[in-house]
Design goal:
mainly alpha; two-stranded antiparallel ribbon; about 180 residues; 2 strands
Length: about 180
C-alpha cells in the first residue's frame, strides 16, 4: 500500500513558525517531509529527538573533541587561533540558516555536530602529518598548498566529513 501525501495549509498563528504539528506534512526549506508520531515501545522511541536540548551538550562535546584533535597539529599561535574559529564560523552559518528558513536552531544541531566531528575525526591520528604541512606552510607563505607535503589526513577528512554530515542530515530528515 502506498502512502498519500496530502497538501496542507500553513498555520500563520503567532509562535507557530509557519508550521503545524498536527498536519500530515511539514515543509522545511521547500521540501515536504512526512511527520511520524512517536510510538511507545518501538525502536524509534529510543532515538534522541532532534529537538532535544541534549543536542547542545553534544555540540559542546563535538567542539571539545575537534579542538583536542586539531590543536596538536598546529605549530604556532596564529594557526591555533585560526583553527579555533572553525566551530564559531560553523555556528554563525547555522544560526543564519536557522533564521533564514525559520527552522529551530536546536533541530539543526545534529548537522553541526556531524560537520565538526567530520573535520576533527578526519585529522585523528595525523597530527604529525598536519604539523609537517603547517611548518611547510609557515615557511612558504606565498606558495600554493598543492606544492606542500601531501597528507593522508586530507583524504581521511574528505571521507569522514561527508559520511558524518550525510548521516546527520539523514537523521534530521527521518526523525
Amino acid at each position: 500500500m502506498t502512502e498519500r501525501y496530502e497538501p496542507f495549509e500553513v498555520n500563520r498563528a503567532a509562535g507557530s513558525g509557519g508550521r503545524r504539528a498536527d498536519t500530515p506534512l511539514t515543509a522545511r526549506c521547500g521540501v515536504l517531509h512526512k511527520m511520524k508520531p512517536p510510538r511507545a515501545g518501538t525502536k524509534e522511541s529510543f532515538m534522541l529527538e532532534k529537538s532535544s536540548s541534549l543536542w547542545w551538550l553534544f555540540a559542546a562535546v563535538s567542539v571539545a573533541i575537534y579542538l583536542s584533535i586539531m590543536f596538536p597539529g598546529m605549530v604556532n599561535r596564529q594557526q591555533k587561533i585560526w583553527v579555533s574559529c572553525g566551530p564559531a564560523a560553523g555556528f554563525i552559518a547555522l544560526a543564519a540558516f536557522s533564521a533564514n528558513y525559520d527552522w529551530p536552531i536546536v533541530e539543526i544541531l545534529p548537522a553541526y555536530c556531524g560537520m565538526i566531528l567530520g573535520i576533527g575525526l578526519g585529522a585523528l591520528g595525523h597530527s604529525k602529518g598536519m604539523r609537517e604541512f603547517m611548518i611547510w606552510r609557515k615557511e612558504n607563505p606565498g606558495k600554493p598548498d598543492e606544492d606542500g607535503p601531501g597528507g593522508a589526513w586530507i583524504l581521511q577528512m574528505a571521507f569522514t566529513l561527508p559520511v558524518l554530515l550525510g548521516g546527520a542530515i539523514w537523521y534530521m530528515n527521518t526523525h
